[in-house]
Amino acid sequence: MPYILLSSSLNCFVYVTLYFCLISFERLLDSCTGSNISIFKNPFRNSIRFDLNVALNRFTHIRIKLSSHRRLIMNDLSKMDLVKYFDDERKSLPVTLQKDKLCSLIKKNETLIIIGETGSGKTTQIPQIVYENILGPDEDVVVTQPRRVAAISLAERVSYEVNTEIGDLVGYRVRFIDKTNHFTKIKFMTDGMLLRTAILEKSLSAYGCVILDEAHERTVNTDLLFGIVKRVQNSRKNSSNPLKVIVMSATMNADLFADYFGNAQIVYLQGRLHDIKIFHAKKNVEDYFHDTFVTIFQLHKEAPERHDFLVFLTGQEEIENMALAIEHINQDPSLRNYPVIKVRTLYASLPTNEQLKVFMSLEPNEFARKIILSTNIAETSVTLTGIKYVIDCGKVKVRCFHPETSMDALKVENISQAQAEQRAGRAGRESDGYCYRIYSKQQYDEMTKDPVPEILRCNLGNVVLQILAMNMDPYKFDFINKPSTDAIEQAYNMLGNLGATKNSILTEMGHKMTKFPLDPRYSKIILSSVNYGCMEDIVNIVSILSTDSIFVSSLSEKKKKQAEDAHTKFKSSVSDHIMLLKTFRSYRKIRKESKSSWCDDNFLNLRNLEYADRAREQLLDICRYLHLPIGQSCGDNFDPIRKCLLTGFFENLAYLNQEKKYITVNAKKECKIHPTSTLFHSYPHCVLYTEIIETSQPYMKYITVIDKEWLLDVVPNVHQRHNYQVLMNSEL
Ligand SMILES: Nc1ncnc2c1ncn2[C@@H]1O[C@H](COP(=O)(O)OP(=O)(O)OP(=O)(O)O)[C@@H](O)[C@H]1O
Fold first, then answer.
1. Residue 280 Cα to ligand 1 middle (Å)
2. Helicase C-terminal domain: from which residue to which, for each copy (predicted)?
3. Whose CA is nearest to atom 26 of ligand 1?
4. What is the mean pLDDT of the chain?
5. Cα(385) to centroid of ligand 1, in Å?
6. What is the pLDDT of residue 308?
7. What's phi and psi for 113, nearest 5 deg?
8. 226: part of which helix (H) or strand (E)?
9. Best probe residue, ligand 1, of 89, 90, 96, 123 (max atoms within 8 Å of C-beta)
10. 429 lines ligand 1 (CB under 6 A)
């Protein structure tokens, strides 16, 4: 921290004059703009030291006021409008009504657990309260969100409320985007981003307060953050800058968090601004997709125009199918007199700017209804304007890992009651709302209360890698719910086999792997592509796999045939990965202005390809940073690529037994090839898969044919294992 000793009276004179000039300028600004946004306190920390940051902060403050003033003019708002805005909208929120009580509790307690109804103002108001009343001039407040779309939209909202440009007083940082500057005081971040910050700067010294929002979600990153923040708080306990921690949610197990933080104080904030009426299906539901569609159809006929819907579904494919079905409603001549439906979609692999389109309102005079089809990405935190009706299918797609079999799979499961409450909470943000649950009350009662923490159901490879990157011991890490020793051991085994650790210590390869925001298996194939001369190709494949399917699938029977024909030129007889690569290579050769029509002609999803292109750029940046030889491609000789895939995915192998069934090498579980695979109708002896999807049965997705003899050269350390010997000896 840049302290300057006032060693001479001249220095003293210069700094004090500068300081008072700044104050006078600020006062002048206030009197011109009518603004009185909170004033910095304690300009002098003690009598002999002058903290340069104080001066910087005062500059910030002036910048912010100038920017507010600019916005005021730009938006043609009068001073009175602004004052009225602060008075009307925020005054009635339950959090604002209990501001004094909250302030004194935050001041008094190191850690506070806050529970308040959805929409009560926790996320938008509490960071402002902390900034205005609790923090010193050189301290920032950071608020974490499990998802980037929430972090961005909330930062935009709070920035609007304090009447500044985004990136000034209020900003956000999510993977690949940083909208903060040196002067930003209230920062919204994804939990993954704060985790990365903590790996680089262990004491989080810039922050006087960390707010862990939506704690009930229990993502892996939030669970890791709990441990890290608790450690940082303990280490700063008796220092001059202790850390305040606030844990918030509408639906969490408060006692669990209070115990974890050493009997922390819990505050229950009473009150909800708007009512939400909840309706359950009368009977147990079997086909949720069908019943969701019927509900949309019914409500569309009954609900007044401009009452928009938010529909929760499980994934991109389901969302696209529903969008197609809704299109038929628009074309139904008997519904001519009803508003036109404008469908918007929201799922994780959509590029961020596409995701943010759901926040846009319809034109004021349009005779239309907005229907947002979303995965659980819109489940927490966000306020989507116009939404009066929530239709909740009651399902969610989750990633599960079975340590005993090393199987990682995506599965559609029932949501928890906490998730059901959060989904309902998306209605009734601006006025009273309705929630239609596509499950009966009995089905609701049978749901678990809270979601199972992700850390207890995911592959821990990345978790162990991140903990090691912070020089901590994964077995001793202070988890809120400790994963089983088996699961940690499995992760160590996997990392050891990947060459990321040796004797439980990070190797040079392991250190490099921590630089990629990827599962270690993907980082490994990028790093080993150097030895196979195919880095460009592997980076392309990894980028494509980081988005949802690039092939348009929800089509009529006639169009399906056309799409198949169009995709023939990309086909590979040995690999889905190669097919993805060929498609991406062709896409990248097309001129920018023609990409859209080329994708239409070839039944490809432009948005997902654009996303992959951006991911590719980011990955190449990391490769450059690590001085890796980018640009190597193996052209049309695809064997090196297939071998390279094996260096990361050697655990994901399956072979065909004599009954013509695929058995996975490690778990010895029967699996089928996914119908979308280019290898669906062929029966190669040994295949590598990237993931398993469990619907009615387990399906292997993204498959490459492997010659089992390659194991000897490519992964000599694992080929000796018993399971692999079974594979080596297997015959058709
Ligand atoms: N982008 C927005 N546009 C319009 N109103 C908004 C927006 N964001 C928030 N609000 C208003 O502010 C209120 C409080 O929102 P906030 O996100 O702070 O609540 P919360 O208690 O954190 O809810 P949750 O638990 O669901 O995250 C909302 O109910 C809504 O009325």
1. 25
2. 295-471
3. 118
4. 85
5. 10
6. 94
7. -105, 120
8. helix 220-235
9. 123
10. yes
CA distances from 191 to 224, 284, 371 (A): 9, 37, 29
Most ligand 1 atoms within 8 A of CB, residue of 217, 429, 431, 432 to mutate: 429
Q: Which atom of ligand 1 is nearest to the CA of 120?
A: 21
Nearest ligand 1 atom to alpha carbon 249: 25
**Ligand 1 and 381: CB distance under 6 A:** yes
Separation CA 566–CA 551 (nearest Å):
10
Consecutive H or E run containing 436: strand 433-440
Alpha helices for 483-594 (secondary structure H): 485-498, 508-513, 520-532, 535-545, 557-567, 576-589
CB 390 within 8 A of CB 417: no
Residue pLDDT, tens place only, 6-48: 344 555 555 556 656 655 665 565 455 443 333 233 333 332 2
Residue nearest to atom 18 of ligand 1 (CA): 121
User: Under 8 Å CB-to-CB from 616, ≥6 apart: which residues?
Assistant: 539, 540, 543
Whole-number Å distance, alpha carbon 429 to ligand 1 midpoint, is 6
Q: What is the pLDDT of residues 155-213, one digit of tens each?
A: 999 998 888 999 999 999 987 678 999 999 999 999 999 998 998 888 999 999 999 99
Give CA separation, 208 vs 134, 237, 247, 281, 699, in Å.
9, 12, 14, 47, 48
| Ligand 1 touching residue 430 (CB < 6 A) | yes
Q: What single DSSP character describes residue 188?
A: E
Is the predicted ipTM greater than 0.90, yes or no? yes
Q: How many angstroms does the Cα of residue 120 sit away from the middle of ligand 1?
A: 7
Cβ proximity of 311 and 466 under 8 Å: no
Q: Relative to the CA of 250, which ligand 1 atom is closest?
A: 25
pLDDT, tens digit, 9 for 90 and up, residues 647-699: 999 989 999 998 889 999 888 889 999 988 999 988 899 999 998 887 778 89
Protein residue closest via CA to atom 24 of ligand 1: 118
Does residue 86 have a pLDDT over 70?
Answer: no
The pTM (predicted TM-score) of the whole model is: 0.76
Alpha carbon of residue 208 to chain centroid: 24
Q: Is 159 in the pocket of ligand 1 (CB under 6 A)?
A: no
pLDDT for 329-380, tens place per residue?
A: 888 888 888 899 999 999 876 767 777 888 887 777 788 899 999 999 999 8
Match domain 94-269 to its CATH number in 3.40.50.300, 3.40.630.180, 3.30.930.10, 3.40.605.10. Answer: 3.40.50.300
CATH 3.40.50.300: which residues of the chain?
A: 94-269, 276-455
Q: Is 383 in the pocket of ligand 1 (CB under 6 A)?
A: yes
- Helix, strand, coil shares of the chain, percent, nearest 5, are 45, 20, 35
For ligand 1, whether the C-beta of 118 sits within 6 Å is yes
Name, of 402-416, 440-454, 657-671, the range with top average pLDDT.
440-454
| Structure confidence by residue, pLDDT tens digits, 574-610 | 999 999 999 999 999 999 999 999 999 999 988 889 8
116 pocket-lining for ligand 1 (C-beta < 6 Å): yes
- The verdict on the CB of residue 385 being under 6 Å from ligand 1 is yes
DSSP conformational letter for 215: G
412 token code pair: 């559609």
Best residue among 125, 145, 157 to mutate for probing ligand 1, ranked by most atoms within 8 Å of CB: 157
Tell me the CATH number for domain 276-455.
3.40.50.300
Between the CA of 119 and the centroid of ligand 1 the distance, in Å, is: 5
Q: Is 425 in the pocket of ligand 1 (CB under 6 A)?
A: yes
